[in-house]
Amino acid sequence: xxxxxxxxFTLDRAGIEALLPHRGDIFACERLLIEDxxxxxxxxxxxxxxxxxxxxxxxxxxxxxxxxxxxxxxLAGAGLLGGGDPYLxxxxxxxxxVLAAVRNCRFARPVLPDREVEFVIQCRxxxxxxxxxxxxxxxDGAAAGQLEILLAYATKAQLALSLESTAx
Length: 168
Fold this sequence. Notes:
By secondary structure, this protein is an alpha+beta fold. It has helices at 13-19, 51-54, 65-82, 86-90, 156-167; strands at residues 9-12, 29-36, 39-44, 95-107, 117-127, 130-139, 142-155. Helix content is 27%, strand content 39%.
């Protein structure tokens, strides 16, 4: 990777979208502070009008834990792709990160829609194409959970081939 980075720097929603393929109700990332190639602070928000939130639970909506996990994967992927990770930058091909494992998740309290959710993220390379991601999650100034996932990186061509074989 030839680019030089001046840390910290921030990606807004458009900057995150430029790095990721996610769109629609599944994409809730608002901004990402990249502190160094492996440490980030990310922010996400889900509106009460989000179709998933509307059904979870009618009359008393909360953000599903699976959406918190997905937001973490998106924020970490954007941080690694856009933040100068030297190892990821050395890999050939146009890469995309995919959620490979949910290792350990604890939720301390419900997260309500229309609130800013903060993810304090730490990444560690675990192998040639896998990164361990941990995060402390908070909303309204209070701890909401601890998450640990594994992201794997594949070229977009590898992912497309995998999707073709799954569809047949």
